[in-house]
Design goal:
It is built from 2 helices and 9 strands. It has one domain: HesB-like domain (Hypothetical Protein Aq_1857, Chain: A, Sandwich). The chain has helices spanning 6-19, 68-74; strands at residues 3-4, 24-32, 36-44, 53-59, 62-67, 78-84, 87-93, 99-100, 107-108. It has 109 residues and is of the alpha/beta class. The strands form 3 sheets. The chain has a 4-stranded mixed beta sheet with strand order 3-2-5-4. The chain is 19% helix and 47% strand.
């Protein structure tokens, strides 16, 4: 299960409204970086129509989709939206993470 904080859900819904189109986001992982995996977050304009997607409703018609393949790595993930000084962005809190690389861009399970 993936958890989206209220702050992150509002930001996703706001970004979709600013774009003028979209159904929600896809969340997953890709192989990259010095630790092996990195989070991927992409806006979705058309609902994925394959059987292997898990769907989460975040309100106001917006949804989050994760493939079964990626859910193995991110089950239990919490997505938040945070501001740190002049920087802001989505923060991924994953209890399965064993370590992150020094720059924080990739992680390992």
């Amino acid at each position: 299960m993936i958890t989206i904080t209220e702050t992150a859900a509002k930001k996703i819904i706001s970004n979709i409204a600013k774009r003028g189109h979209g159904q929600g986001i896809k969340v997953g992982v890709k192989t990259t970086g010095c630790s092996g995996l990195a989070y991927v977050l992409e806006y979705v304009d058309q609902v994925p129509c394959t059987w292997d997607w898990v769907e989460y409703d975040i309100g106001e018609g917006a949804k989050v989709w994760v493939t079964q393949k990626d859910l193995v790595y991110i089950d239990g993930l919490e997505i938040d939206y945070v501001r740190k000084g002049l920087n802001e962005g989505f923060d991924f809190i994953n209890p399965k993470e064993a370590a992150r690389c020094g720059c924080g861009e990739s992680f390992t399970i």
